[in-house]
């Protein structure tokens, strides 16, 4: 049974992983056009591309946690949250997008938690509204 979910994770990750580098390329293009003297080394660009691909891959794949029928919503939410948090904090530190300083990590964590739950709540309400509408139709 878990094999099915693992395959879904991989498939979704592969399907949507390319969006991360596309977004990164747009950001790099805008920064190059607007920030005087902005420049990156080949290594920084390569690390950014690989990192954003992995982030997008993981982000897309973790949606499978919400489809494991045997899991309560709290367990799928916890796995989803922890997986994304570890992926994001690791990527941000490796790319030196944030420094490895306690206060900065605390701020990052607070922002991540707030945004995660705001987005989760919006998605939850959207799904609930669609379900309610579908039930009326049926």
Largest sheet: none
- Model regions low in confidence, pLDDT < 50 over at least 5 residues: none
Q: Given the C-alpha coordinates, what overall shape results?
A: elongated
- State the end-to-end distance: 31 Å
By helix and strand content, what is the structural category? mainly alpha
Rg over CA atoms: 18 Å
Instruction: Provide the number of structural domains.
Output: 2
Helix count equals 5
Compute the number of strand runs. Answer: 0
| Secondary-structure element order, N to C | HHHHH
User: Helical content, roughly?
Assistant: over 70%
Mean pLDDT: 89
What is the percentage of strand-forming residues? under 5%
Compact summary:
The chain has 138 residues and is mainly α. It contains five helices and no strands.
Summarize the structure in words.
- By secondary structure, this protein is mainly α.
- The protein folds into two domains: 2-97; 102-138.
- It has five helices and no strands.
- Helix 1 (2-16) crosses helix 3, helix 2 crosses helix 3 (42-61) and helix 3 packs antiparallel against helix 4 (73-94).
- The longest helix has 36 residues, at 102-137.
């Amino acid at each position: 049974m878990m094999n099915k979910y693992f395959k879904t994770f991989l498939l979704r990750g592969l399907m949507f992983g390319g969006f991360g580098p596309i977004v990164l390329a747009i950001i790099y293009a805008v920064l190059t056009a607007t920030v005087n003297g902005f420049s990156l080394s080949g290594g920084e660009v390569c690390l950014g591309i690989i990192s954003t691909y992995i982030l997008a891959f993981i982000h897309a794949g973790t949606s499978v946690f919400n489809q494991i029928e045997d899991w309560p919503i709290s367990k799928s939410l916890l796995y989803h949250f922890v997986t994304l948090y570890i992926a994001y904090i690791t990527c941000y530190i490796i790319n030196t997008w944030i420094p490895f300083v306690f206060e900065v990590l605390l701020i990052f964590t607070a922002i991540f938690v707030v945004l995660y739950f705001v987005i989760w709540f919006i998605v939850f309400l959207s799904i609930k509204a669609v379900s309610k509408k579908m039930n009326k139709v049926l």
